[in-house]
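Open question from group meeting: does this chain pack into something compact, or does most of it stay loose? Before anyone orders reagents, we agreed to write out a predicted structure and look at it together. Recording both the input and the output here so the notebook holds the full record.
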Amino acid sequence: MSGTGNNILVKTKNLTKQYGKTTALDHVDITIRRGDIYGLVGNNGAGKTTLLKILTGIITATGGEFTLLAAEKESDCRKVRSKIGAIIENPGFYPKMSVKDNLEYYRIQRGIPGKNAVEKVLDEVNLKYAAGKKFDSLSMGMKQRLGLALALMGEPEFLILDEPINGLDPAGIIEIRNLLLKLNQEKGITILISSHILTELQNIATEYGFLNKGKLIEEISAAELKKKCRNYLEIKVTDAAKYTALLEKELNCTNYKVLDGNCIHIPDEVEQITDYSALAVQNGMGLLSFEMKEINLENYYMNLIGKEKEEQA
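Structure tokens returned:
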């Protein structure tokens, strides 16, 4: 591929991975730009980890191609991977060795220069105080931060993280979130992150790629997603046709959707919410339900999957 530009760190074209008759990744095209926090969304088996493993060189693609930090050939990709930090599977830390010694072992093994490299990354992930602690004495949150410290060795431009908040308590999740935001905003590190905890992904991602059964079903910016995920008023009445005519005439509301079962959705820019219930009651209609609802990332993903099933039917 050519012409991807300096702003693009990753671009895939028809990227495919098959294991025998099983297609784990099916002609996927994604684009990750410098400075993004790219959230990869998908159920188990959607192809998230397969994609991350191809980009990091753990496995090779069956078909398609990709550009990685401007490198196109596989031999060039191997060179630029020194600029990538990754947590894909649990790093093999030695349980009886200290935090510092574990990282020092990997620093030497990977040929990363600078004896202060370990101290620097421990400081970045707020683990300097635990340098002398044995790995098996660490909490889950500390182990996740140690994995992140390992990924940050060598000062990468790009972080690839597979489920970095898996198994953490709420305090640990917030800690990792703040750390990733800091790395992105203060150090300019681009981050590709997969997670099944979609409510948390919604707190940090600037771009999203939605995978389902190996296929990319949508790529969308956080700003575009926010417009689609506004709160809405759900009203169920006995006569939707009559109610919507009154909506337009009495409340000057045309931005609504009529769904099955006399159900009407109105976006959240409604002013006097009680006017909408009164409209039904005062005009002799039964008001079956009246509720303000929220579309979050999880709802949005499930709706996308539902639409895809309908199109395939």
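Observations to bring back to the group:
The first helix runs from residue 48 to 55.
The mean pLDDT is 87.
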